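Handout, section B. The chain below has 97 residues.
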Amino acid sequence: MLVSLSAFLLVSGAVFFLAGTLGLLRFPDVYTRLHALTKADNLGLGLMVLGLMLQAESLAAAGKLLFIWLLLLAASATAGQLVASWAQAKGIKPWRG
């Protein structure tokens, strides 16, 4: 049961990573691409971390995985903000459709 739940979480995380990648390739401007990447990749990473935590050999290993996920959440938000600020400073307008 635990192995199947872990496998489900890992596959679900991979699907969200794939969705973020498709958003990066398909969306029309930098702002919508950033949105796709930050939302889908953070959720995908969270699901993968949960799946790996179920397989962790100790509570310390699970804690390390959780800490890595939290650091990557902060890094992703910071990088997304910096890229959006750079695009706005360069005068790149949001896509209006």
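Note. The mean pLDDT is 93. Compare this with the example in section A.
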